[in-house]
Amino acid sequence: VQQTLQRYKELRDIIAILGMDELSPEDKLAVGRARKIQRFLSQPFHVAEVFTGAPGKYVPLKETIKGFKAIVAGEYDHLPEQAF
């Protein structure tokens, strides 16, 4: 997960200047997975309910790790970022 997020950080300047179309297929996959990881990390917290109106959820550590492994392995490449 950290490697994927680090690669995305390295590619952000290239994306800003040249756009996603100039990335290699591997880098496009890395960017997509990193964005999904970022969304996956933004689960609704109980303390934020007052501000977001969304009920907080508890996700067990095992499920979180399983989700990260699936994202990094490409099991959710077919889903859009908005699904996370």
Strand content: under 5%
Name of the CATH architecture: Orthogonal Bundle
Q: Characterize the biggest β-sheet.
A: none
List the helices and strands in order: HHHH
What share of residues is helical? Answer: 55-70%
CATH class: Mainly Alpha
Structural class: mainly alpha
Counted up, domains total 1
Rough outline? globular
Residue-averaged pLDDT, rounded?
94
Distance between the termini: 15 Å
Round the Cα radius of gyration to an integer and report it.
15 Å
Throw out a few tags for this protein.
84 residues; mainly alpha; Bovine Mitochondrial F1-ATPase, ATP Synthase Beta Chain, Chain D, domain3; 4 helices; 61% helix
Structural overview:
The protein has 84 residues and is mainly α. It has one domain (2-83): Bovine Mitochondrial F1-atpase, Atp Synthase Beta Chain, Chain D, domain 3 (Bovine Mitochondrial F1-ATPase, ATP Synthase Beta Chain, Chain D, domain3), CATH 1.10.1140. The chain has four helices and no strands. The longest helix is centred in the first third of the chain and has 17 residues, at 2-18.
Question: How do the strands and helices of this protein lay out in sequence?
Answer:
Elements: H1 2-18, H2 25-41, H3 49-52, H4 61-73
